[in-house]
Write a structure and sequence with these properties.
The chain has 413 residues and is an alpha/beta fold. Among the domains are: 45 residues; 153 residues, no CATH class. Helix 4 crosses helix 5.
């Protein structure tokens, strides 16, 4: 069949399938089949651009190679939608000394998603920082990024205030603060981002400072617009972290009646002793992780969540959770019998979860899913069947009401 007789709908379907699977070799081959395929294939091939540190100071890097491509084919840079920047170790910085980096940043005029990892933002050339902070992003991911001050961090959010949808932050640090001697922040224009999803790691002093910025007196985001909140890792390591998380919960209370419908929390270290319960008004989807790392019992986050459910069931009339996902990640070692995990404290916690969720009438089918991730010492099917049976016995009302599913976890947690 001649290429020109293939309908545009068929071509688009083929390209969409290749795009979703990121099958780059197939896309390159397809671009050579017909000239009419080439624009679509180029759009897919150059939609994501990643810059990583070179293997040695004298090795060519992707940034320089892309700069050469920009000069010969200027129609390529506008195709880039996602930019990933990785700096490497703090003492081996390549971006500040790479002369082509500012020019590449200026050429990427249509980037909507940016990810920066191990980047000292204050070390970037002024032209590069200006080119980044003047773009309207829909998604920002920052991991192990150091800012000169919270002014730089706010500037990154400010220009994207009307476009940013997803903010993903972890291990952020600041070289200095704009706080005055009385603890307040110097007056700056506040632009509120209307996020749909907020993802945070909360472990360090820098992360606590981020919480103070996001949920302080001049918050740069509107929590009443956030639909999904993910706390990937929570470690209450200091009073500053407690203060920051308290401000986050206060924002959830203040924005009662907002759009928040989904909360996902990784394992909590110290959270249960340091903080009051999280408000669950209107939240229909809840996902949390419980581990046994370093102990022969479930982590205290199990008790913390059981208390949350008990309080929500009593205090929140009309709370109708649709889906509750609990992941049990077991890392007990071969010397620990699995039965020891179900001590009196954990049995009480499971009982509170069972009665609370049955009391509010969970509506999903199944409404509660427990995923069991076994360690290398307990990976036999008999171990899974033992845990499955135990969990069902701890949640009898949900189990007999056909609202419970217990399965083996798969993939990355």
């Amino acid at each position: 069949m001649p290429i020109r007789s293939i309908s545009r709908e068929v071509v688009d379907t083929i390209l969409e399938a290749l795009d979703s699977n990121i099958d780059r070799e197939s896309i390159r081959a397809l671009s050579r089949v017909s000239r009419s395929f080439r624009p679509h294939c180029l759009r897919i091939l150059f939609s994501i651009l990643s810059f990583h540190p070179p293997s040695s100071p004298h090795s060519p890097n992707a940034c320089r190679a892309f700069h050469n491509l920009v000069e010969s084919t200027p129609h390529i840079p506008p195709l880039v939608r996602t930019l990933n920047i990785c700096e490497g170790l703090w003492d081996h910085l390549w971006i500040p000394t790479e002369p082509t980096f500012p020019g590449v940043m200026r050429a990427l005029v249509n980037v909507t998603d940016i990810s920066m990892v191990f980047v000292i933002f204050s070390s970037l050339p002024d032209t590069s920082r200006s080119a980044i902070t003047s773009k309207k992003f829909t998604r920002i991911h920052l991991d192990s990024v150091r800012f000169g001050s919270d002014d730089e961090f706010r500037a990154l959010l400010r220009y994207s205030s009307d476009s940013l949808e997803v903010l993903d932050l972890g291990n952020i640090t600041f070289e200095s603060s704009t706080r005055s001697s009385d603890g307040s922040t110097r007056d700056q224009p506040a632009e509120e981002c209307r996020l749909s999803m907020l993802m945070l790691d909360v472990q360090s002093e820098g992360d606590a400072e981020v919480l103070n910025i996001l949920f302080g007196s001049r918050p740069p985001i509107r929590m009443d617009m956030v639909e999904r909140l993910w706390l990937n890792e929570v470690c209450v390591s200091s009073d500053a972290v407690v203060e920051g998380l308290d401000k986050l919960w206060n924002c959830l209370v203040i924005s009662d009646g907002g759009m928040l419908g989904s909360i996902s929390v990784g394992d909590c270290h110290g959270l249960e002793e340091a903080l009051r319960s999280v408000p669950l008004n209107g939240v229909s989807e809840i996902s949390f992780l419980v581990t046994t790392t370093g102990s022969a019992r479930f982590s205290p986050s199990l008790q913390w969540w059981s208390n949350n459910f008990s309080r929500a069931a009593v205090a929140s009339e009309g709370w109708e959770p649709v889906e509750i996902s609990i992941t049990l990640q077991l890392e007990t070692g071969s010397s620990v019998p699995l039965a020891s995990l179900f001590d009196n404290e954990s049995i009480d916690a499971w009982a509170h979860i069972d009665s609370s969720l049955c009391g509010v009438g969970v509506t999903g089918t199944p409404a509660v899913e427990v995923r069991i991730a076994l360690d290398a010492d307990h990976e036999n099917m008999s171990d899974f069947l033992f845990m499955q049976s135990w969990v069902r016995r701890q949640l009898p009302m949900l189990h007999h009401g056909r609202s419970l599913q217990v399965r083996e976890a798969s993939g990355n947690l």
